[in-house]
Amino acid sequence: MNARFHVHLHVADLDANIAFYSRLFDTPPTMRKDDYAKWLLEDPRLNFAVSSGKAGPDGIAHLGLQADTAAALETIGARLQAADQVTLAETGATCCYARSDKFWAKDPQGVIWETFHTHGEATTYYAPEAARPATPCCDAPARTAAARCDTAAGCC
Q1: What CATH code is carried by the domain that includes residue 22?
Q2: Where are the alpha helices (DSSP H) in 50-129?
Q3: CA-CA distance, 107 to 141, in Å (whole number)?
Q4: Is 153 part of any domain?
Q5: Cα 22 → chain centroid
């Protein structure tokens, strides 16, 4: 599989966490914003992100897989669909200062998984509120996880 493991944490003190993880990974973040930082590591192959000021408790926001190609994302999405676990599919979502196609799922314990292929940068953390649909869709845990992102593609 051509993918990078992804972990996203909600944190109370962004600067303290950036300092800690920069020392742990022995490198500064690949991307840093006022409310977000991301490390794209090769060893281990990891997309590790922290954000502050977001809804939800501090700690793990979600886990995921960042697909290297659109074809790899489709393969992962097909596996999730075969397991009847896809709760939201997004095309061109704006989230975490990037534009991506995504599948959101949750495992049997309720852990939220984001699988995505990024195809561009964005200037905002998420799409403006006006770009989101007026009515909620899918089940509450996935909707909660995806609420920070543009859901213009609808859901399953």
Answers
A1: 3.10.180.10
A2: 70-82
A3: 11
A4: no
A5: 20
pLDDT higher than 80, residue 148: no
CA–CA separation, 147 and 152 (whole Å): 11
Beta-bridged to residue 50, according to DSSP, are 9, 37
* Residue carrying the six token digits 């300092």: 19
155 lies in a domain? no
Residue pair 73/80 in contact (Cβ under 8 Å)? The answer is no
- The whole-angstrom distance between residue 63's C-alpha and the CA centroid of its chain comes to 8
Q: Does residue 154 sit within a domain?
A: no
Q: The whole model's pTM is what? A: 0.75
Is residue 145 within 8 A of residue 62, CB to CB? The reply is yes
CA angle 88, 5, 36 (to 5 degrees): 75
